[in-house]
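Translate sequence into structure tokens.
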Amino acid sequence: MPTQCFFNLPKEKQMKIVGASICELSKVPADKISINKIIQTAGISRGSFYQYFDDKFDLINYLLSDLKNEMHMSFRKNLEKYNGNFFEMTKAVYDEIILLGENENNLRVIKNFFVSMKFTKSDRLNFMKLFDISEEFFYNIFLSYMNQNNFRDTSKDFINGAVNIIWLLMRQSLTDVFSDYENLEIYKKDFYIQLDIIRRGVIKE
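Result follows.
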């Protein structure tokens, strides 16, 4: 997150830096953004940039903090709404993320965010890091809301494995959606089918 030095800046200057950063992120994947282009557009020195942010990834986290906060609230809200039904919650969260793409600026930024994320291994922790979901949040909040009684196996390893598979599928589907938004209904249908196949395998009928 930004340093206090950034928050001490006049709001107008903060917004100029944020605007220049979003403009750059809307053009290239997150891992390819150029600090030089950002500081030129914002009219600040490179030294000033590093007074405000540790690096470009610190900046990206700040730019996406609203999105991440919305996702945290969405997980809780929809688990409560669907009485802990993980599969209905997943569809609701997925749909809410997709709606963010209706704004053209959001679409470009989110596309470049998802496209730039390269997972080194297939595990739940990588998806959690994507949205700054801590282990504490996952175990104390997320799992406490989830209704686990209808799972075929209620062991920690089984539930973690199911969540792992579903979130990896969601991440890939969202990458496809934001890379080809005009065909989002195709990707959404495919994701729902995959989700239902997994549901049939892990839930007791």
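Note: The chain is about 70% helix and 0% strand.
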